[in-house]
């Protein structure tokens, strides 16, 4: 009788947290006074005190998890400066600044550039193409996923590869509600075994095939997850900060060993923002 060799069990990596370094901007001047995405309605009242309280709790959450949070001073007349993720992309100490599509946000780029200069960042380049930074760039530890379709120019992807010196994979967004890559995809775990979560319907057919090929173990979000900007999450490899309403996604992540942390960002969502929009990661 011939013995049967059983296949080896697949080893699923145990989620591990690593300390992160973030840059944030308080929503001192937050309001919705113009509309540059489908979430924004200038006729909807905004409670600045509530927005500040939500932002403060988000910052405190990161610090309780052991992460470093630096803060840039907000500027009057720039209500969307709270969304610091749109200000730069930082990998291995190299900084690629931002260039905004909407004129209402254009001045933010210079304030963030000055912050990096005063903090001693010398390898800094301001882009020649429209580039909304981590709004459309997601670093997996090996590859930079880059979105286009509504904000960042496709040509900015090549510029990012040249400046940052990392391989770039272009993805096309097709649903205007998910106008930035970080509203439809985020990185759960970085490195050789990187894992992501994303909402497939936000992407073109070709981009979905690319993501399926690159990340067969990805966590797929449903329409309810996406509709509360549940994909605008922040992960340290184990703890995953999500909007309060993203309960379905939280359950799926918990089943994989991640620890979801749900936070209220309902006031900030009036501008189409969530935890990730408020959080620029400074990748050392």
Automatic annotation (TrEMBL):
It comes from the Bacteria. GO terms for biological process: arginine metabolic process; citrulline metabolic process; positive regulation of nitric oxide biosynthetic process. GO terms for molecular function: amino acid binding; dimethylargininase activity. The active site is at residues 180, 277. InterPro entries: DDAH-like. Keywords: Hydrolase. Belongs to the DDAH family. This is Amidinotransferase. It comes from Saccharopolyspora thermophila.
């Amino acid at each position: 009788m011939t013995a049967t060799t059983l296949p080896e069990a697949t080893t699923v990596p145990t989620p591990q947290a690593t300390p992160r370094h973030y840059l944030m901007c308080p929503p001192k001047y937050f309001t919705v006074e113009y509309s540059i995405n489908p979430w924004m309605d200038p006729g909807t009242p905004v409670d600045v005190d509530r927005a500040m309280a939500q932002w403060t709790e988000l910052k405190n959450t990161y610090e309780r998890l052991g992460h470093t949070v630096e803060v840039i001073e907000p500027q009057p007349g720039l209500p969307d400066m709270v969304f610091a993720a749109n200000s730069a992309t930082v990998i291995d100490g190299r900084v690629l600044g931002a260039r905004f599509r909407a004129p209402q946000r254009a001045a933010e780029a210079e304030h963030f550039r000055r912050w990096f200069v005063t903090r001693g960042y010398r390898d800094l380049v301001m882009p020649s193409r429209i580039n909304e930074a981590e709004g459309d760039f997601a670093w997996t530890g090996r590859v930079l996923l880059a979105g286009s379709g509504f904000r960042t120019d496709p040509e900015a992807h090549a510029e990012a590869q040249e400046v940052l010196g990392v391989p770039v994979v272009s993805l096309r967004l097709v649903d205007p509600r998910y106008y930035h890559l970080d509203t439809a995809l985020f990185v759960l775990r970085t490195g050789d075994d990187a894992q992501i979560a994303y909402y497939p319907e936000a992407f073109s057919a070709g981009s979905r095939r690319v993501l399926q090929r690159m990340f067969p173990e990805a966590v797929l979000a449903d329409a309810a997850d996406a509709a509360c900007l549940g994909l605008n999450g922040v992960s340290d490899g184990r703890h995953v900060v999500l909007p309060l309403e993203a309960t379905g996604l939280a359950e799926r992540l918990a089943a994989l060993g991640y620890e979801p942390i749900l936070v209220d960002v309902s006031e900030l969502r009036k501008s189409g923002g969530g935890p990730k929009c408020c959080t620029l990661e400074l990748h050392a």
